[in-house]
Structures are given as structure tokens and as C-alpha cells.
Amino acid sequence: MAMRKIATIVLLISLGFVYGQNLIGNAGLEDLTPAFWTPLNATMGGDVDVSATAKYGFSSFMISKASATTTEEGWMSDDNANLFWNNAGTGTFAVSVWYKTDGVNTSPANDDAKIGVVYTFNNASGTELATTTLWADQSAASTDWTELTGVVILSEAPEQVFVKQVMGKDATGTVYFDGIGCNTSDSWTMGVFNGGAEDVDGWMDWYGGNGNYTYVTDAEANTGTNSIVMAQPDTMTSMSELVYYSTPAPVEAGEWYKIGVWVKTEGVVDSSDWDRTYIMRDAIDQRVNLCYFFHTNADLNAGWDLVGGDKFVYVDQRDPSTGWTHYVVAEQAPEEATGISVRARFNNNTTGTAYFDDFSVEKMATSPGTGIIDVSANSGVPSDYVLARNYPNPFNPSTHIRFTCPSSDRVKLEIRNVLGQHVKTLVDSEMGKGNHEVIWNGDNTNGQPVASGVYIYSLVTNKGLFSQKMILIR
């Protein structure tokens, strides 16, 4: 497969650059509140159970009360009617939920002592069109996983659809809910986001569930406690892509943004050719990657229209296991762009385990007209590894490239064209602490002069990779 690079995008991998506020909510996965749900009351009888108590996947909603309370407890969903790709229509809505109880009160005398899930459909003004409740069976104190189903028939398309998991104020014990569903039965028009409590605040996921998985774990972290883990064993007969992705964040059209993530791999499929990459449009099988795309909806919560397609930044898979590594790229938001979302991703047939943490999207401070950060001039640049601007620039026939190492280390200094194609490696060796200068004579690996144009020079270090742009004029 041809590996096409995007000419208007420049790779910038660094350690600790700060140019603006991180636009990604819950970027470090530390807030475990289930995405698209809110506790009903401040007493927070609701929780998320990530033990074996789940009908599907790894998690379920849990509501637990030792005694009667002054208010009902549970979880309230966001409005699902027109959320992202949902588009609730008229017709018959199928509603469903799985539940499991443990030591709950039996024979409830009224609704205040009952346990169930309430579905409410409203018009645009908030007036109720229909409500239905799926009540749990409380004839016994404890039950195994049981499914409840129902239907709601609407002649008017709802503009609001809310789902409430509830233990009445007089109900006691513990209930688990999972697989909460709501959709039109003849043709799919909507669903309930995060109906299984698999996703944390600000995030969504996709995985097959047949031995592969993606979820938030406390087993590994770059910072804090949590990270996203993706795993797919090579014993699976059918391996598919895995994705854990953020809700869209707003961006400004025409501005430059730095998009980044920290990744650690364990036993992933490897090849000596699979170095980290520039931004690419090709979906390459067996590769672990940071993926992102730009959105064009005026209301980022009410659509999923895209511009430019998927952008892939492939991680280093030359070895099956790597320590935490920072991958950062820079791109100018298209003129149609209103938002961006990022994702941890296994492409098809990727095996092994990878952890993702500390995602970032930051508006960049750029040099006028270049779209490239001037690392030598920006006060936010750390004082360890520094890649300065070449001089002269533009140049003919040669230019000087300076860089600084904070300690003795093996580094690589290489030249690529704007398509991401390798031109020449200038340094690939142990370099001492301090300042270094290399001269490039405008030639390729074979010693042949290269054509006039824009070239990218990059310093690869154990702390990341720094890139700058230069112009050769023959």
C-alpha cells in the first residue's frame, strides 16, 4: 500500500511544549464519571462498577442504598434525541435494559420503593410526548441478570430523549444496570450513548468484545492514575479495529493546532520498518496510532460531519514493547473546521497491548506565515533538547543546523521533504552534552543535489522529536 503523506502538515514531536490551553476534556482519563450521564442527586448513591458485575463488557452502572433517603438516587442521561449521529424520528421505539439486584427491598408498596429505568420523550419546547418505565422485579431480594423490554409509539419526532436509572427514595439494596437501549424498531435512528458505563467523561469507544477490548485502566499511567488500554490477542481468528475517542472540541478555522498523546506498548506486532510516522491518510493494518479528524458542524453536539478524513500518526513498532513516548503533530485547521476529536486506535489486525494517556490539542503560537514553531524564540520551550532554526534560510547551496543536548545521548538528525519522504540522515550517533552544529549541502543520501523547495529537518531523541522547516532555492 502506498503511504501518502499530507504536504501541508508538519510533524512536531516534543517534550513539554506549552502554547495554549488543552482543548481535550478529561485528557488524562482521571475523571471516571460515566460519559453522557449525571448523578441524580448530590448524595450520589450511583456509582460505576468495573468488577465482574457486568452483563456486557467490563462495567455496569451501580446504585446502592443502605437505607431510605429523602430523594431518589441514580443516574440521568444527557439528551440523546439528536446527539452526534442520533436522529430520533417517529414510529415505534424499542426500549430495553438488563439489571441485576443484590439485597434489595421486596414487595414495594408504591413507586417510591421501586427500582427501574424511566424513558421520557419530549418535543422541542420540553413538553412530554410519552413516558414509560421498565420496573425491576422485586419479588426476591437478589436476582441474576434479567432483561426488561418495552415499546413506545410516537407520531411526532421527539426533540429530547432522556433516560433515568432510579432507586426510589424508600428503596434499599444494590442494583446494577447494563445494556440500556432505545431505538426505532423498523430502522435505526438513535441509541443511548454509553448505555453500558464503558466510557469515562468526555470519551466514547468501539471494540468487538470477542477477546479484544479498550477501556480506562489504573494498571498503567504516564501521569496521574489512569490511561486507556487496548488489547487484542494474536489467538483471535477475526481481529478488528479498536477505538477510544474523545467528544469533539471546538477549533478556529485557519489556526494551527498541536495534537498529541503519550503511548506505551507491550508485545505489539512489530517490524523493523515500522518507525513512528508523519501524519498520514492511509489506514495501515497492524498499526497502533493516534488518529484524529476535524468536524464541520456548527453545533458539535448535534452532528458528526467531517472534513479531510482520518489522519493517522503511527507509533514506533520497530520493537514490540516501548516505554512511554510522546507523539505530537501540528496541523492547520481547514477553513470549514469547527471542531476536532482525537482517538487512541488499533487498526485492523493489530495485536498486543498499548496504553494511551495525556491527550492534547492546543492552539499554537506560530511564526508569521510559516505554520512552524520557532523553538529558539519561544519562551515556553524547555531548556533541555533544543533544535534551532537553520541559517541562512532560505539557503543555497548549504545551511547550518544547530541543536542542543542536555546530556550525552544517541540522537538522529534527518531531512525529509514536505511529503514526508526521507532525503538524508545527517547524524545518527552518540552526541555529547552541549551545543552542536551540522552543515547540510542540499544533497540526498546518494550525494545528489536535491531540487528547490521546502524541507523538514528533525532531531530524534529519547525524549521525543523536534522539527523545523527550511527552504532551498537553487
**CATH third-tier fold name of the largest domain:** Jelly Rolls
Overall shape: it is elongated
Terminus-to-terminus distance: 33 Å
Mean pLDDT: 86
Relevant CATH superfamily of the largest domain: Galactose-binding domain-like
Q: What level of helicity do the residues show?
A: under 10%
E-strand count: 29
* CATH top-level class of the largest domain: Mainly Beta
The tally of helices reads 0
Percent in strands? over 45%
Question: How many domain regions?
Answer: 3
Task: Output the strand order for the largest sheet.
Answer: 1-20-17-22-14-13
What do you see in this structure?
The protein is an all-beta fold and 474 residues long. The chain has three domains: 10-29 and 200-363, Galactose-binding domain-like (Jelly Rolls); 37-184, Jelly Rolls; 386-472, Immunoglobulin-like. It contains no helices and 29 strands. The protein has a six-stranded antiparallel beta sheet, with no helix packed on it. Strand 7 (115-122) and strand 8 form a beta hairpin. 41% of the residues are buried.
Entry summary:
With 474 residues, the protein is mainly β. It has no helices and 29 strands.
Task: Break the fold down into its secondary structure elements and pairings.
Elements: E1 10-11, E2 37-39, E3 46-49, E4 60-65, E5 73-77, E6 91-102, E7 115-122, E8 128-135, E9 143-154, E10 160-167, E11 173-184, E12 203-206, E13 213-217, E14 227-232, E15 242-246, E16 249-250, E17 256-266, E18 288-295, E19 306-314, E20 322-332, E21 339-346, E22 352-363, E23 386-387, E24 399-405, E25 409-417, E26 422-431, E27 434-440, E28 453-461, E29 464-472
Antiparallel strand pairs: 1-20, 2-5, 3-4, 4-11, 5-10, 6-9, 6-11, 7-8, 7-10, 12-15, 13-14, 14-22, 15-21, 16-21, 17-20, 17-22, 18-19, 18-21, 23-24, 24-27, 25-26, 25-28, 28-29
